[in-house]
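Minutes, structural biology subgroup

Action item carried over from last meeting: produce the structure token record for Putative inositol 5-phosphatase (Microthyrium microscopicum). EB confirmed the sequence was re-checked against the source entry. Recorded below for completeness.
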Amino acid sequence: MATPSSAPLDIYYLTFNTARTPIDPSILASDFFSALPSTTLLPAIIAISIQEIAPLAPAFLGRALLTPYFDAFTQCVALATEGRLRAHQTPVEADEYSLLLARHVGMTGLMVFIRAGVDVAWVQTAGAGCGVWQTGNKGAVGARLGVKMDRGIEEVTLVAAHLAPHEFAIERRREDWERIVRNLGFVYDTTLGGAGNADPASNENEDDDDTTALLNTMKPMSRSSKPKGLYDTAGPIFFGGDLNYRTSSSRPMPGDIENFPQPTNDTNSPHHLSKLLARDQLMQQRSDGVVLQSFAEQAITFAPTYKYAHSAVGPITTASTDDPDGHWFWATHRFPSWCDRILYTQARSVQVHTYNALPIQATSDHRPVALAVSVSAGGKDVLEAPYPLNPRFAEERAWAARRELVVGVVMFLATTREGQTILVGSVVGGLASWFFLRALV
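Output recorded by EB:
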């Protein structure tokens, strides 16, 4: 059994909109820890927020159809870990990280990895949809961990989110935030201790996988425990994802691209990122106190994370913000924006080390963003939720999941080769049966 740590808890949170395309694990792995400070060899917890994790059909149907997409990130973490340890000339352990959980609500996913030696006492999870009829084409998924530290159990809440798109949809994004706060109810996750809904405190039906081995000593919690809302915690909350806030309420006009940001350290230049950052919708909304109340964000010093043009326009360049010889290739029909963000609460117990964008990945028009922090025990703040938890959140999520299943089946049959094969086979089989029965009459 792991010993509670007296050191701060190092957390590395990465968010990435994968544009419904599987990542290349080896390519992302080479840059995965680029925002991790040199003083931290490896963090205790790795959280990955994934938006547009897969096309709609596998995302809504879930289960085995999503496994390849999650597995690619698991492979990426393993490769990134091996690379960092070798770079520091440190022995590589095969079981350096265990996958604690991989959860999704529709197209938004959350993965949490725990380093060997970190003692997790309990886990709660939550999910909320913000799409049509509360389905999960947009929404949030969260995990709340009870991590044993020297002063007791420290609660850490990790939330992955994807809000409404489009420049003009500022009010829709505010409504999505309200829906998330009202419907993100955290309950004890009984699926982590073994197969199905087995209780982690029981040895029945246990699987011999990493998750079971990690959690089979978890402290049982009452299944009738009252659900907790997003703000109902004594520890820090990390909220990240494609929040979709833009730098304009309308699309660019002809000629606007001439003043899009480019790498420069001249703050007086019209191309300096600060000129566009001053128009950031999320900063304005937070200043008005209508979204992400009580959350903080580290100062942004990196280039906009959206929307990049791909090789059809020019080579993908990942120049730093002050590289005068670099160039950023932007899509012409969108203002460059900082869509991908990570915010946090409990500033007194959270020490931010780095907040930065990773290099462009050829599979997406978004750049990944990473936040490296240390969490110390104590320094609690009492947070007031802007909206109460919806008492019917579980029932409404269940109904939304049924709608997702129907949509997923329809999209699977209509848009995938496997589905079309099944559909054609069913039609041919039905017609053959009809002709056979007619022949018998």
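Discussion: Residues 417-440 form the longest helix (24 residues).
Next step: EB to file the record with the rest of the batch.
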